[in-house]
Amino acid sequence: MDIPERPTAGLVIRYAFLWRDEADDGREEARKDRPAAVVVAIPKDDRTQVIVAPITHSPPDDSAAAIELTADVKRQLGLDDATSWLRADELNRFTWPGYDLRPVPGRDTVVYGKLPPGLYTQLKNRIVEIERAAREGRKPRRIVDRD
User: Considering Cα of 76, then 81, then 86, then 90, what sign does the dihedral take?
Assistant: First the structure.
């Protein structure tokens, strides 16, 4: 299976994403594999720390915390036609490559493709806003460490 040596920001991978409520319930394994976008990849010694944001079909409770993907972006990534959101309010952190990477269905790689630069910038800006609100105590922080 093809796994990039070093992931880059905006890369969309297949990943066993663990939601915060699953982690709070004591789960260590995700219920489902899904596409997730690499938000940041930080080289650290001979490993890389990665933070990913999930792509889901479930509508968000807070529309400001998610970005609806356009049909063109979904087609470019090879995703299905159902409505999908890129969530900025739920994140996972892990050491690359990590045991939760999964092959894209029908392909010998974990990579779907890359987010368009403008969409990646939107995601990054939403995450910064949400993190600022969490530091100020206005919203809970929703990152799950998977290491």
Answer: negative
Structure tokens at 92: 């996972």
Task: Let me know if residue 16 belongs to a domain.
Answer: yes
Helix (H/G/I), strand (E/B), else coil: 92: strand
For residue 50, what is the domain's CATH number? 3.10.129
Q: Are 36 and 13 in contact (CB under 8 A)?
A: yes
Which of 27, 131, 53, 146 has its CA nearest to residue 96?
Answer: 146
pTM above 0.90, yes or no: yes
| Distance in angstroms (rounded) separating the CA atoms of residues 128 and 76 | 26
Look at residue 58 in the predicted model and tell me its pLDDT: 95
Mean pLDDT of 65-75: 97
